[in-house]
């Protein structure tokens, strides 16, 4: 079960690395194909805003990756749960404010990670 928890955490971190890249470095190119519902004339004017979002996604990815490098099992679980909870909350907020698709892409994988880590921590 520990391996599954770490794999899910790694996958969520990799998703956020992708979001970082997309929002910070490919906002006016590749992001136009990903965010088809976003008006194409707004990509250039919102480039710095998207880069800021990408930076936050990078912080989430860094925290998740950090949780996988800690030698203390208790701290690994605690830090992974904290950052997965942050991702889950962002996914819920994104679903409410932007698109339900955000919950499935961002919130659901984080929730799965929270369930697996919580099972390990609390024996649920």
TrEMBL record:
The chain crosses the membrane at residues 7-29, 49-68, 75-96, 102-120. The keyword DNA repair does not apply. It comes from the Bacteria. Keywords: Membrane, Transmembrane, Transmembrane helix. This is DUF1304 domain-containing protein. It comes from Maribacter algicola.
């Amino acid at each position: 079960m520990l391996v599954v928890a770490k794999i899910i955490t790694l996958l969520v971190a990799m998703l956020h690395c992708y979001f970082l890249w997309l929002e910070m470095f490919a906002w006016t190119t590749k992001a136009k194909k990903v965010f088809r519902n976003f008006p194409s004339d707004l990509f250039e004017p919102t480039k710095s805003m998207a880069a800021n979002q990408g930076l936050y996604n990078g912080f989430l990815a860094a925290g998740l990756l950090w949780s996988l490098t800690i030698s203390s099992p208790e701290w690994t679980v605690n830090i992974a749960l904290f950052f997965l909870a942050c991702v889950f909350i962002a996914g819920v907020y994104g679903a409410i404010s932007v698109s339900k698709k955000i919950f499935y892409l961002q919130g659901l994988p984080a929730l799965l990670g929270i369930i697996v880590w919580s099972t390990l921590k609390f024996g649920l």
